[in-house]
Amino acid sequence: MKKKDVEFFEARLQEERARLVKELRYLDDTVLNKSLKDSSGDLSSYSFHMADQGTDSIEREKAFLAASAEGRNLIEVYEALRRLYTGDFGNCETCGDEIARKRLEAVPYTTLCLSCKQKEEKRAGRRGCAVPGSHHGG
Predict the structure, then answer these.
(1) Are the C-beta atoms of residues 31 and 39 closer than 8 Å to each other?
(2) Cβ contact 55:49 at 8 Å
(3) Cβ contact 80:107 at 8 Å
(4) Distance CA 26, CA 28 (A)
């Protein structure tokens, strides 16, 4: 990879890292570190109505899931930076082929070329059916 490309992807990964850190801080400040009492705005620890309490719980769970996904992406960004600095960036971890530049620009922390990613998703789709007796071999 040319020095110009390394600089481009380093900047792109640092940009993605900053975005993820900002998102995680926002989730942490607005939802994750607040109790149900704080998030509902009530003086008591109970919502005014059971439906409000359910909505509060669902919103907190969605925030936890989002934070978990963003945290995994942040780890992937750090791993991509490590690969960039060690010279392993841009090669598919499955087949070893070079990952297309457009794919790297779209998802700079990807570890798979498009072909291997599609194969992985196809395999995951077959395993995903857990209904006994289904036509997928469950």
Answers:
(1) yes
(2) no
(3) no
(4) 5
Give the closest residue to 17 by CA, choosing from 72, 61, 77. 77
pTM reported for the whole predicted model: 0.70
Could you read off the pLDDT of 55-64 as tens digits, one per residue? 777 877 888 8
Which H or E run includes 16? helix 3-27
Distance in angstroms (rounded) separating the CA atoms of residues 82 and 108: 12
Which residue in the block uniquely carries the two structure tokens 């607005």? 30
The percentage of residues in the chain with a pLDDT greater than 90, rounded to a whole number, is 51
Sign of the torsion angle spanned by Cα atoms 59, 64, 68, 70: positive
Which of 11, 27, 23 minimizes the C-alpha distance to 80? 11
The full DSSP string for 61-105 is HHHHHHHHHHHHHHHHHHHHHHHHHHT-TTB-TTT-PBPPHHHHH
